[in-house]
C-alpha cells in the first residue's frame, strides 16, 4: 500500500486508482463463467493476488483524492461520507444476495465492477500532484491550506522512487504525530480483527450461529454504520472534532463487546449490533487526523502506510485472540467466563479512551502550542494505554506501565515549564516516543 500511495503522489490519483479498480473485475468474471473446482482454485489464487493491491489500494488512493479536493474544515465530513458509501454498498450487496441466485451474484458483481471502472475513467478528474516540494506554490488557497506540524514540514521527504521498507520506516519515524497515529491505527485494527474472526467463533460456539445469523448481524451493523457515517459524522465532526468522535466510537465498541461477553440469550448479539452507529466513527476519525497532519504531496504514502499497518494488525489479531477464545470456551478454562476473550478486546478500547482523556486534561493547562499539540498528547496517551494492555499479559509489566503513564501525564507539564530550551524538551519527548514505538516498530 505505501508503494501505491507513493506512486499516486507522483503520477496522480486517477492513474493509480485505475489499476486496483480494473484488477477487481477479474476474480468475479471467473466464477461468473464457471463454478467448478478448478475454476474455484483459480479464483482463489487470483483473488488473493489482486486483493493485495485492490483491498487497501482503492481505499488509500481514494482518501488521498479526498484530501486533495477538500479543505481541512470539510475533510472529516468528506472522509466520513466516503466510509458511509462503502458501508451502504455492503448493505445493498448483502440484500441482493437474498434475491439473486449464485450465478447471478457473480454476474452482478462483474457488472458493478465494470461500471465503476468506466465511470471513473469518464467522470473522475485527475489530481495534479507536485513531484517536488519546490514546485508547491508559496501562496495556497483554502483548499490547499494544510497545517503541518514543524517536524513534518522539516523532516518528511517526498520519495521520487518506489519506497523501500527502510524508506517507509524512516517516513514513520520522521514525524512524532504521524508515528503515534500509526501505532494507534495498529492497535485499533488489532482490536477490530479480534471483533471479527474470534468473535464469530465465539458466537458459533456459544449460540450456535449459522451463516444466516452472521449475515443478519452484519447487515444490522452495517445499516447503522452507513447511517452514522453518512449523517452523524458530517454533522458532528465540525462541531466536536475528530478526537471526540474517536473516543465516542471506542467507548461504544467496548460497550458492544461487554454486552456480548456476558450474553446468555441469542437475541442479545442482535441488540448489541446497534452500537456500531458510533463504533463506525473510529476509522474515519483516525484517517482524518492523519490526513490533517500530512501535506498534500504525502497524502498517498501516508494513507498507504496506515492501510498496510491496519492490514498487518488484522492478520495478527486471530493468532492472539482465537486461542484465548478457544481456551475460555473449553473445559480447561482458568475460570468460568466464556466471554472473557471478548471482554479483553473491549478493554483495549476502553483503556484507550481513559488515557486519551486523562492526559488531555493535563496537557490542556499548557499554553505553549509550538512544542506539542493536543493531538500529540492524545495520541501519546493512546500509545501508553494500549501498550499497557497488550504488553502486560506478555511481559508482566501492567502495573508498572499504568504507574509510568500516570506519573508521566502529571509531570510533563511541570517539566515543560522548567526546561530551559525547546530543543531539550523536544528531545525528551522524542525519547519517550521512541521507547514506546520500539514495542511495535
UniProtKB/TrEMBL annotation:
Gene3D superfamilies: MFS general substrate transporter like domains (1.20.1250.20). One of its GO terms (molecular function) is transmembrane transporter activity. Keywords: Membrane, Transmembrane, Transmembrane helix, Transport. Residues 1-128 form the Major facilitator superfamily (MFS) profile domain. The chain crosses the membrane at residues 15-33, 39-66, 78-99, 105-124, 337-359. Its main location: membrane. The keyword Transmembrane applies. Belongs to the major facilitator superfamily. Phosphate:H(+) symporter (TC 2.A.1.9) family. This is Major facilitator superfamily (MFS) profile domain-containing protein.
Amino acid at each position: 500500500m505505501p508503494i501505491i500511495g507513493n506512486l499516486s503522489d507522483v503520477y496522480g490519483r486517477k492513474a493509480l486508482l485505475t489499476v486496483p479498480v480494473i484488477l477487481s473485475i477479474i476474480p468475479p468474471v471467473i466464477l461468473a463463467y464457471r463454478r467448478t473446482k478448478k475454476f474455484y482454485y483459480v479464483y482463489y489464487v487470483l483473488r488473493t493476488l489482486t486483493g493485495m493491491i485492490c483491498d487497501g489500494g482503492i481505499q488509500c488512493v481514494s482518501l488521498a483524492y479526498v484530501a486533495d479536493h477538500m479543505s481541512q474544515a470539510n475533510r472529516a465530513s468528506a472522509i466520513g461520507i466516503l466510509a458511509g458509501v462503502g458501508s451502504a454498498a455492503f448493505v445493498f450487496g448483502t440484500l441482493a444476495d437474498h434475491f439473486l441466485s449464485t450465478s447471478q451474484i457473480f454476474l452482478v458483481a462483474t457488472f458493478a465492477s465494470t461500471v465503476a471502472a468506466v465511470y471513473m475513467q469518464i467522470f473522475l478528474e485527475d489530481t495534479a500532484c507536485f513531484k517536488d516540494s519546490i514546485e508547491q506554490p508559496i501562496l495556497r488557497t483554502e483548499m490547499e491550506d494544510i497545517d503541518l506540524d514543524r517536524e513534518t514540514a522539516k523532516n518528511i521527504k517526498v520519495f521520487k522512487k518506489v519506497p523501500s521498507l527502510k524508506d517507509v520506516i524512516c517516513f514513520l519515524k520522521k514525524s512524532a504525530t504521524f508515528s503515534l497515529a500509526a501505532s494507534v491505527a495498529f492497535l485499533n485494527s488489532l482490536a477490530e480483527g479480534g471483533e471479527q474472526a474470534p468473535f464469530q467463533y465465539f458466537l458459533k460456539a456459544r449460540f450456535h450461529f449459522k451463516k444466516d445469523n452472521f449475515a443478519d448481524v452484519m447487515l444490522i451493523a452495517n445499516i447503522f454504520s452507513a447511517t452514522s457515517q453518512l449523517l452523524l459524522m458530517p454533522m458532528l465532526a465540525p462541531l466536536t472534532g475528530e478526537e471526540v468522535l474517536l473516543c465516542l466510537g471506542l467507548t461504544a465498541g467496548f460497550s458492544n463487546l461487554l454486552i456480548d461477553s456476558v450474553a446468555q440469550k441469542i437475541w442479545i448479539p442482535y441488540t448489541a449490533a446497534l452500537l456500531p452507529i458510533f463504533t463506525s466513527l473510529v476509522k474515519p476519525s483516525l484517517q482524518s487526523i492523519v490526513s490533517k497532519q500530512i501535506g498534500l504531496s504525502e497524502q498517498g504514502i501516508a494513507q498507504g502506510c496506515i492501510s498496510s499497518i491496519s492490514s498487518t494488525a488484522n492478520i495478527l489479531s486471530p493468532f492472539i485472540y482465537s486461542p484465548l477464545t478457544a481456551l475460555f470456551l473449553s473445559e480447561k478454562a482458568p475460570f468460568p467466563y466464556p466471554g472473557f476473550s471478548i471482554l479483553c478486546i473491549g478493554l483495549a478500547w476502553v483503556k484507550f479512551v481513559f488515557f486519551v482523556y486523562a492526559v488531555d486534561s493535563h496537557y490542556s493547562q499548557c499554553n505553549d502550542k509550538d512544542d506539542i499539540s493536543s493531538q500529540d498528547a492524545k495520541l501519546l496517551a493512546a500509545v501508553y494505554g494500549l501498550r499497557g494492555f497488550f504488553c502486560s499479559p506478555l511481559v508482566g509489566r501492567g502495573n508498572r506501565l499504568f504507574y509510568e503513564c500516570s506519573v508521566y501525564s502529571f509531570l510533563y507539564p511541570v517539566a515543560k515549564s522548567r526546561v530551559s530550551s525547546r530543543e531539550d524538551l523536544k528531545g525528551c519527548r522524542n525519547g519517550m516516543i521512541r521507547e514506546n514505538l520500539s514495542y511495535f516498530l
